[in-house]
Design brief:
This protein is an alpha/beta fold and 448 residues long. The chain folds into three domains: 3-120, Probable tRNA modification gtpase trme, domain 1 (Gyrase A, domain 2), CATH 3.30.1360.120; 143-211 and 382-443, Four Helix Bundle (Hemerythrin (Met), subunit A) (Up-down Bundle), CATH 1.20.120; 218-373, 3-Layer(aba) Sandwich (Rossmann fold). It is 44% helix and 18% strand. The chain contains 14 helices and 13 strands. The chain has helices spanning 31-38, 93-105, 115-122, 128-139, 143-154, 156-180, 188-209, 212-220, 234-242, 285-300, 361-373, 384-405, 410-428, 434-443; strands at residues 9-12, 19-27, 39-40, 53-60, 63-73, 84-91, 109-110, 222-227, 260-266, 269-275, 303-309, 326-332, 348-349. The strands form two sheets. Strands 3-4-5-6-2-1-7 form a seven-stranded mixed beta sheet. A six-stranded mixed beta sheet has the order 9-10-8-11-12-13, sandwiched between helices. Bound molecules: guanosine-5'-triphosphate and magnesium ion. Magnesium ion binds at residues 234-235, 247, 255-256, 275. Guanosine-5'-triphosphate binds next to helix 9.
Length: 448
């Protein structure tokens, strides 16, 4: 048990502001004793059965602070794994602070951000992916993000990582048996079987890595950037997609000079729409900065909505090519006669003012994004940290594979496989090596 684990922590677990109820939470070895010092009721906190609620009063000396419901969750059957007390008080900012302060004066210390979940992890209640899912769950803004976070919290990602670890451990254990018996070279057919097992592991890593993009989209949404020449109707399109007049629309070219970002929820996916400053040659410093921002937004876009005025000739934008990025060309102002430049162009015709051609546009946007690199049915999706660990693991596996092909001694292969195992373990916060030894002795009869 680390030093900080011996401390009892207290925090207001509900957001600051007025509400019917607020929650003050205590965790640690003294949680119940602290509660006994501030709680007055028919039954003391220490007399309560675990997970039952008791009505009573929070007092300091003779002073009544609030009437509350209090519940005790005894270790290890609690969120953090140690004794937890939850106090539901009235949800005023001041009264909640008073209840919390009373707990601090009675012996608890203020909890750091995330400390309850950190303890849950350190006590083995959650793996790291589950701890991260708690944050994702709280931050989720769309159904898909929520589903993904819930599944991660249930441990689906953790399970896949654990299976990957087990496969690696068994492979390493097998390999290290040859190290312990140096007379026995790895037979060619064993080497072949090894490579097949390693390739299977690599495949699993690659499959998980492929969900990184999906994970980012679940967590952050899809970045959709509207760009085009000045006056093409970009701000009009943003307003149409949002359903309210967010950006200024004017017949004067150069109306929008800054990027404007808004989020819409489209079938459970957060679309981060960005309206940008129109592109044209301009000597105006503010407009130039606006166009530089347009360029930066384009560089980060998942999908570009390239809007043109179909009533005008094809524009030329120098240096604004978006190589390789998903783009949807939209011909706006289709209520006006079409310029001959667009005759052979089979892009979607829309009119923001006459509201034409907009039905189905959202679906087309989703299809464009999903068709590219997105697979909604699987909600297991890794985050940037997992991605970093798995990339390192995959690289280590690649080195091991190369060593295997070159018939290097098993020690060389083992070093890389252990590096891979360590990196995989980091995903769930489990990186110690004892497991290999356990598996080595358990699955191989070393005493032969
Ligand atoms: N006829 C017609 N006019 C449109 C249409 N869409 C936009 N407009 C008009 O075109 C002008 C420019 O529209 P904006 O939405 O401000 O264009 P923008 O691309 O944001 O322009 P900048 O911000 O200056 O780059 C306004 O007068 C709009 O009313 C359309 O579909 N048809
Ligand atoms: Mg505009």
């Amino acid at each position: 048990m680390t030093e900080s684990f011996k401390e009892t922590i207290a925090a207001v677990s509900t957001p600051s502001g007025e509400g019917a109820i607020a929650l003050v939470r205590l965790a640690g070895p003294e949680a119940i004793a602290v509660a006994d010092r501030v709680f007055r009721a028919k039954q003391k906190a220490s007399e309560l059965a675990s997970h039952f609620q008791q009505f009573g009063e929070i007092v300091e000396g003779d002073r009544l602070i609030d009437q509350v419901m209090l519940s005790v969750h005894r270790a290890p059957a609690s969120y953090t794994g140690d004794d937890v007390v939850e106090i539901s008080c009235h949800g005023g900012v001041l009264v909640t602070a008073r209840v919390w302060e009373a707990c601090l004066r009675a012996g608890a210390r203020a909890a750091r951000p995330g400390e309850f979940t950190e303890r849950a992890f350190l006590n083995g209640k959650l793996d790291l992916t589950q701890a991260e899912a708690v944050i994702d769950l709280i931050r989720a803004q769309t159904d898909l993000a929520l589903r993904s976070a819930t599944e991660q919290l249930e441990g689906r990602l953790g399970e896949r990582i654990s299976r990957l670890r087990e496969d690696l451990i068994s492979l390493i254990a097998h390999l290290e048996a040859y190290i312990d018996f140096p007379d026995e070279d790895i037979e060619p057919d064993v080497g072949e079987a090894f490579r097949a097992r390693l390739d299977k592991i690599r495949g699993q890593m690659e499959a998980l890595l492929a969900t990184a993009e999906q994970g980012r989209i679940f967590r952050e949404g899809v970045r959709v950037v509207i760009y085009g020449a000045t006056n093409a109707g970009k701000s009009s399109l943003l307003n149409r997609l949002l359903g309210f007049p967010r950006a200024i629309v004017n017949e004067m070219p150069g109306t929008t000079r800054d990027t404007i970002e808004e989020v819409v929820n489209l079938r459970g996916v957060a679309l981060r729409l960005t309206d940008t400053a129109g592109l044209r040659a301009s000597a105006d410093a503010v407009e130039q900065e606006g166009m530089a921002r347009t360029e930066r937004s384009l560089a980060q876009a998942d999908l570009v909505l390239h809007l043109v005025d179909a009533n005008a000739a094809k524009p030329e934008y120098a240096g604004m090519e978006n190589a390789g990025r998903a783009e949807l060309l939209l011909l706006n102002k289709s209520d006006l006669p079409e310029h001959s430049d667009w005759k052979t162009c089979d892009a979607r015709r829309i009119s923001c003012t006459a509201e034409k051609g907009l039905e189905g546009l959202e679906e087309q946007i989703l299809a464009k994004v999903s068709g590219q690199r997105w697979d909604i049915p699987s909600a297991v999706a890794i985050n940037a940290r997992h991605c970093d660990c798995l990339r390192r693991a995959l690289e280590a596996c690649d080195r091991a594979r190369a060593a295997l092909l070159e018939n290097l001694p098993p020690e060389f292969i083992s070093v890389d496989l252990r590096a891979a195992l360590h990196a995989v373990g980091e995903v769930i916060g489990q990186a110690d090596m004892e497991d290999i030894l356990d598996a080595l002795f358990a699955t191989f009869c070393i005493g032969k």
